[in-house]
Structure prediction request, 352 residues.
Amino acid sequence: MAALARLLGARRDGPGRPLHWTDIASYAYLAFGVVLMFGPVLWLVFSSFKTQSALLEFPPSLMPMAQVEVTVAGQPNPLPLFRATLPDGSVKDLAQIRRVGLVAQMVDPAEPDKTYRVAIDKREPVRKVALATENYTEPLRQFAFLRFLSNSLFVTVVATAITLLINSMAAYGLAVYEFRGKTAATLAVIGTLMIPITIVLVPVYLVVTELGLVNSLWAVILPGAATPTGVFLLRQYMLTLPRDLIEAARMDKASEWQIYWRIVMPLTLPALAVLAIFSIMWRWNEFLWPLAVLTKTEVYTLQIGLAAFQGELQTQWHYLLAMTVVTLAPVALVFVFLQRFITTGIGSTGMK
Prediction:
């Protein structure tokens, strides 16, 4: 908050001076950028607390609203409340008993024995902010969403750990060792970035099928364990490490594994953090490959589970939006805790 206050109090000509037009333009531009980036996220979060009928209202409202219902003596169920304009021009809050065509039979909750006939265009529903928390609880209870969540967590954590290990070992070999064909190997790794996943989807699926890994979470984890982006990112960072340090360790009779694990890896933590963020986002949001190799409900990941709310004739938008918020929360938390490494890591690896 103190940093934000200093930013808002900054002036082009120094503290205490009137705002320059460039200051106003800068604040307006930044405010527009904030709304543009976080506006859809706020809309998603607020809409996740709306009921299915509230999501279909027009014009839409930002906050989750619901019609007020009141209990009226002599009525078995709560009745919806409206603010009605009577023929004499007075305005009263009336509860609707029934509606026949364009006319509604209504009653005053304070005087349940007195009924009114009001045209539907002479009334407005009385609304209040209401959070439909069942959008979160029902999918977790009925649709095994906790199982989908645990599957995604397992895939993301294990795949990220394997990716960091394999990519760092490959990057270490390409950055530290000198051997014939090193440049060709590096270009081959970088060249695979231009191959889209749809081209290798069928061959990789055939390999996974021959290994008997279909409908196993390992079928999602292993094919993408080594990524060219990760190898290139870590290699570029390791090239900046002092070679004298590695040579000194070799002179002290340190093994290559000790040099890699106890010297190079700690110095590469900023780049590893960046790769960890990328890997978590890739694995958490992956949809096409898990959809191809997972056909049993008990091994579904979150992204495939979200597709279960989209039917051929009807989409359960209230559940879909709520579970989308659930899937976004872990990635957002990881980004918040590791974001301080992004600028350092990317700036040191030469990534664009």
Q: What stands out?
A: The first helix runs from residue 2 to 8. DSSP finds 16 helices and eight strands in the chain.
